[in-house]
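DM from R.C. (forwarded with permission)

"hey, sorry to bug you on a friday — could you get me a structure for this? deadline for the figure draft is monday and I only need the backbone to look sensible"
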Amino acid sequence: MAVMEELLLHFRNTTTLISSFLILFILYLISSGFGPQRKEPPGPRPLPLLGNLLLLDPKSPHIALYALSKKYGSVFTMHFGPKKAVVLAGHKTIRQALVQNDALSDKEALPIIRDLKLTHGIVFSNGDTWKEMRQFALSSLKQFGMGKRSNEETIIEEAQYLIEVFQRKEGKAFDTSQPVSYAVSNIISSLIYGARHEYDDEEFRTMVAHSNTSTTLMGSPSVQLYNSFPRLFSWVGARKKLLKGAFANRKQVMKRIKNAQETLNSHLCRGFVDSFLTRKIKLEASGKMNSHYHDDNLQLSVINMFTAGTESTSSTLRYSLLIMAKYPEIQDRVQMELARVIGSRQPRVEDRKNLPYTEAVIHETQRVANGVPFIVRSASKDFTCQDYLIKKGTPVVILLSSVLQDEDEWENTYSFNPGHFLDEEGNFRKRDAFLPFSAGSRNCIGEILARMELFLFFTSLLQHFRFTPPPGVTEDELDLTSVVGFTLTPAMHKLCAISRH
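My reply, with the result:
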């Protein structure tokens, strides 16, 4: 009997042990991903080492990616060399991922970003640094007038300088890129430093040139190849040129910051730099040495804002003038509306609501110009998108161009059609698929500023000039093809600005 009881006790203990082991094993399987789970996105089969790079056109990778999305779906896997990433395409998928999800707030630290030491500041930083710098930049820009009447006056004043430059061309064909870039750069400079620059200021011209060159090189095919194979292609000329120019620009920015520091009056801040320096001094005085307010964050924040505040807006404005020359009937309608509603007085921001066709033309220009074709994020945690699992740490390519070209959202996707933004009565209408400034927690902090600049510069120029192709060039021959960089810019071209007065 005693032997039987001992056997039963042993059996019970063994059963309990086995049961416990099974429970732990099942929990382990579930936590390790062996339980019921969502599948990973499909995609083209990669080649050894090359991945799917042969499927991309180096001059327009965003177009090839959009074409692949039509075959594999709006969420698909893509191998950029040996690195696996997930691509998101289409309005619904991207809006869901950016607006309804907090897993895509981190930027992917590409090799070229690490080389350039850009992981401080606003654009390429992550975590607490990004949150603090973004919030401080937003509050500072608003403090110094972004989106307010004072900022409007600054833009109107700058528009007059730009008009004078165009008038001096006396109707002869010229490249609009430099004067437009200088005008737009002066607006962000006034918010950063509290001052504008003359267009013949060599230091200012060099800063703008560095900014434009860096943006072009960052998205060049050879730098993208380096990002895929950093050990094999560190020798490429574009990378070396980018590094040399970027660090020369950084020295120039530090010189400007030092000058601001020497003339600083903490009770009368002139712009973002003064506000940052004032905050830094106060924190140091209080003994908070581990603050985010240090030289690297100041330097990179200034570079981020200057570059972002120059390139995209100036490119879109140049596109708008090119489109007016290519489609004279659209230019006629804009100028007729301006004459009817405003007459000869200076356009103001408040006029937008009474200029539906002009507003539609500006919005359609942004849609077609498609400034930032894609952005690269890193999944900060596991999440699902369209029933597919995207694992933590996965690079995620968000194809913003696909939103502005989504054939399910736009009636005439590949044509310039202001009607996309007009209802049947000719009133301006908003579109959910209009996301030129991205969306979600990392949308462009300068959206309000860019919208104000585009409207005031465009309407002021259209009041004073009629834009035409150069002599010997027809409207049909004007090329709207973009040059691919970190942003998309118009190919080099010339226009005639014919005075209307």
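R.C.: lifesaver. The longest strand covers residues 75-80.
me: no worries. The longest helix spans residues 295-326.
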